[in-house]
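For the sake of transparency, this paper describes our internal protein records without simplification. Because each token names a local backbone shape, the row as a whole describes the fold. One such record is reproduced below, unchanged from the form in which we store it.
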Amino acid sequence: MKVIITQEEAVEKGIWSEVMGMFGMDDEDEVWPAEEFILTEEQARKLKLIP
């Protein structure tokens, strides 16, 4: 299973810094609010997006 989350959703859930780390990004990288990130099931569980 794959889970898709946007940058805006990650910020709202308070997990944006973790998502950035998973994708090797930092604060200087340009990202749009609607930009989508595809997480593996394992990543989504780690971020507590799925049980």
Summary: The mean pLDDT is 97. The CA atoms of residues 2 and 39 lie 6 Å apart.
